[in-house]
Write a structure and sequence with these properties.
Oligomer: single chain
Shape: globular
Number of domains: 1
Radius of gyration: 16 Å
Order of helices and strands: HEEHEEEHEEEEHE
CATH superfamily: Mog1/PsbP, alpha/beta/alpha sandwich
CATH topology: Protein Transport Mog1p, Chain A
Largest sheet: 8 strands, antiparallel
Strand content: 25-35%
């Protein structure tokens, strides 16, 4: 299963996750939202992942690019809809078990000139055992975007897990930011990082 594999082991570091991690290193404002740290945004040149977009990342989360060698190694698991996994952001340093993933593409619904809604509909439809899908048009920074919240069923664990994803279009193709989590509690705890990315998102040059 696509989702179950992603949940247990990150593409850039497949390993068995042992033990429960606790604590949270987010600095939050009075509304509980993570504050944007100073310095370069993820996606800029010289950062761990150079992307068509950039956004602020809570400093304790660790990003790592997923190169072509890893994409080939994991095969179909690297793709979802018209986008391919290019960056994986590990929440373990922030005290959580889960990842935020960045996927990009230039063909199909991800081709320049397309719509974020079409990209997101295809992305969610290519998930395994998706349900309770909700799409909404939002602003990501100043960019028009489509956000999806939905559930996926992990048959091996007998669990229904929440997912959140955001799709935007750029002149360099479509981008999807996806947030999972090992369970509903971890997913909820990691939402501030997703919201921070959404709030600070902008195109790179």
């Amino acid at each position: 299963m696509r989702h179950a594999w992603r949940l247990v082991a990150g593409a850039v570091g497949a390993m068995v996750l042992a033990g429960a991690l606790t604590g949270c290193l987010f600095e939050t404002d009075k509304d509980g939202e993570a504050k944007a740290p100073k310095g370069p945004k993820l996606g800029d040149k010289g950062t761990a992942c150079e992307l068509p977009v950039r956004f602020s990342l809570e400093k304790s989360w660790k990003a790592k690019a997923v190169d072509e060698a890893v994409q080939k190694q994991i095969g179909p698991l690297a793709k979802q809809g018209s986008v391919t996994l290019v960056c994986e952001i590990d929440a373990k340093p922030a005290g959580h078990i889960g990842f935020m993933r960045i996927m990009t593409g230039t063909k199909g619904t991800a081709a320049p000139g397309g719509t974020s809604r079409a990209l997101m509909k295809e992305f969610v439809a290519d998930e395994n055992f998706e349900s309770k899908v909700r799409l909404r048009e939002v602003k990501a920074g100043d960019l028009p975007a489509t956000e999806a919240s939905y559930s996926v069923t992990d048959l091996s664990a007998g669990a229904v897990l929440p997912q959140r994803a955001l799709a935007v279009m750029t002149e360099r193709g479509g981008v999807v930011i996806e947030l999972g989590g090992i369970d509903a509690e971890e997913h909820k705890a990691m939402l501030p990082a997703f919201r921070l990315a959404k709030k600070t998102l902008e195109k790179t040059g």
